[in-house]
Amino acid sequence: MSGNTQFARWHHLARQFLGEDFFKEILHAAEKDEPAVDVFHGPNEVIVVINLPGMENIHTLEMRVEGETLWIKGQIPNPYEGFHVSLSERKKGEFQKTIPLGVPVARRYTSARYRKGILEIRFPIHKEPSQNHAMKLKMDDRE
Count of domains in the chain? Predict the structure, then answer.
């Protein structure tokens, strides 16, 4: 039996056993439009770095600190609305993400900077877990 025949047989059996919805959900999960994030811990602060290329107005980003978690929600607009798309790999549209910070942080960030599509937010480490707190961004430096 050839490799293609074996794969086709396995694929058919997997679909019978797991169902069509399983594969649709797996593909949908793999296509999430969440921005990439890095979290760094210093002695007294947590630095969150978020990829947000194409975000026209960073002040529309919704953020909330919930204990040791930063929650963000926003939208990256499509600058070519109305054009026919022949290839689309860049992120656009609504997104939301829950970012584990690993330690409790203060309710307010100490600085925020958006440059070249990268948002950097610095939070002081806090000894007590913070309550839920929504915030608006005020930039130190924009490009």
Answer: 2
